Amino acid sequence: MVRPAVLAPIVCVLASGAAVMSFARGSWLGVIWLLLAGLTSNMAWYYARRARSGVPASGTGGCADSGSCGACSRGACG
Fold first, then answer.
1. Is 47 within the bounds of a domain?
2. Total domains in the fold of the chain
3. Residue pair 62/71 in contact by the 8 Å Cβ criterion
4. Does residue 16 fall inside a structural domain?
5. H/E element holding 30?
6. Taking the CB of the first residue and of the last residue of the chain, which one, N or C, has fewer CB atoms within 10 A?
7. Transmembrane residues, as ranges (predicted)?
8. pTM to 2 decimals?
9. Is there a domain that residue 4 lies in?
10. Does residue 7 have a pLDDT over 70?
11. DSSP letter (8 states) at residue 61
12. Has residue 72 been placed in a domain?
């Protein structure tokens, strides 16, 4: 199964290309492709920031894991 973090930028590029092609042919369907490109761009940004911050991909995260994320040691938990 492909991870969303890898799939989101690929779909973003493909949707952007489809939007350009649709608008070049005079079709208003490009608006839908543009919205999809925006959505997947936000998803790609979210996954990139999440990977940079070191938040685990599974589990509930935060203090619910008894401080296993390390945020409490940095003073982020309050």
1. yes
2. 1
3. yes
4. yes
5. helix 30-53
6. N
7. 28-48
8. 0.64
9. no
10. yes
11. -
12. no
